[in-house]
Design goal:
With about 190 residues, this protein is of the alpha+beta class. About 40% of the residues lie in helices and about 30% in strands. Strand 5 and strand 6 form a beta hairpin.
């Protein structure tokens, strides 16, 4: 065992370095989904940690397309289909990409891809572009949503209460079961003594 001891610090250092490298190479992406009307705009934020060469935003579905490539202090590369409709804010470690003048064909799944030591993908953002809605219909739709809000809230709290009640009953049943097993074990022990 003594000859192995000098190797232990080296192994621990290697393991910690590998774990730190794995933990620091991640891509966070927000929002998970967004719905916008045709002609509107959406924003997707790509956040990374660790050393970074650049960031891609790729449309993965329905047809894989590289939307942009962004690298600090260099002009971004933008696919011709999206040219004139893309704006950037922030730096490549925390980059917000805004796509405006949405078209129905922009509907799809978009993912940030960080170019690090390895290529690291973020979770997809589902983008749904809807048909333009006339202003009167839009106002009517908003009124319906506002009137439905109390019902949705009431039902949400009802189901939340049911869930909490079920958890309480389950915990009480477990506690009673545990208590009865302990009492039975105590009775058996006292009868044998």
């Amino acid at each position: 065992m003594a000859p192995e001891l000098p190797r232990l610090p080296v192994r621990l250092t290697l393991a910690c370095t590998l774990l730190r490298a794995l933990a620091t190479q991640e891509v966070r992406q927000f929002p998970p989904y967004t719905i916008a009307p045709e002609g509107g705009s959406i924003s997707i934020t790509c956040s990374t940690s660790g050393s970074l060469s650049g960031v891609f935003l790729k449309q993965r579905l329905p047809k894989p397309t590289s939307v942009i490539y962004y690298e600090d202090k260099k002009p971004p590369t933008v696919d011709e289909r999206f040219r004139g409709r893309i704006a950037f804010s922030g730096l490549q470690h925390n980059l917000t990409i805004t796509l405006s003048h949405l078209q129905l064909s922009d509907t799809g799944a978009y993912a940030c891809q960080a170019v690090m030591d390895d290529v690291v993908w973020g979770p997809d953002t589902l983008v749904v572009v809807t048909d333009k809605v006339p202003q009167e219909a839009d106002m009517c739709q908003k009124a319906q949503l506002i009137s439905a809000l109390p019902v949705v809230l009431a039902m949400s709290f009802f189901f939340l209460g049911l869930g909490i009640g079920a958890v309480c009953v389950l915990k009480k049943t477990q506690a009673l079961s545990f208590r009865s097993r302990n009492c039975a074990a105590w009775r058996i022990r006292t009868q044998h003594v």
